[in-house]
Amino acid sequence: MPDLDALRARWTHALEGVRPPGGPDPAPYADNLLARWQEPQRRYHSVTHLTAVLDHIDLLEKHADGPDLVRLAAWFHDAVYHPDRSENEERSARLAERALPELGAGPSHTRQVARLVRLTVTHDPAPDDRDGAVLCDADLAVLASPPDAYAAYTAAVREEYAFVPDEAFRAGRAAVLRELLDLPRLFRTPYGQREWEERARHNVGHELGLLDPTAPGEAGA
Question: Which of 65, 173, 196, 201 has the lowest CB atom count within 10 Å?
Fold first, then answer.
């Protein structure tokens, strides 16, 4: 289980980096977000995932224009998560748009965080979107996991969608994987391209081959 006190400190540090001194106490907002990230329907999109994304943002920090804004976007990007709903990212962005002004963040910072949250629908930032590249790379870094960790990730995703019959899940998951493989690059930062791209494409292609043995060339990718 991740250290919740350490996460609260990370939340406060990121928030203080984008707002004037003396704003409202960030602790209740951290507790609200952490409660959301620990909801019972989550198996992959949990506080462990939040921690991993924050860790990867720290790793990629030099590639961002506003690293603390990216960190705040990570906190909000799956804050609303119900596997049976399709508007999670939009609702998460709206949560950021409500909470950040209350905490003293300015309009431009609030807009940027909400924009980044909405970007996780496609994980396809514009070429000049450095903050978007860092958030998307941090969110997708799990795709470059070693085999055992990747298998645990896919099993956790399946658990989140336990209410979906096998055939429908396989078709839906395969469609998501094809969309990822169709991206020109899975990772947009120089670090991600160098360290994660090849392994992630192998993992995604292999999973797609298991889900759909007719997928040409994927099982042995």
Answer: 65
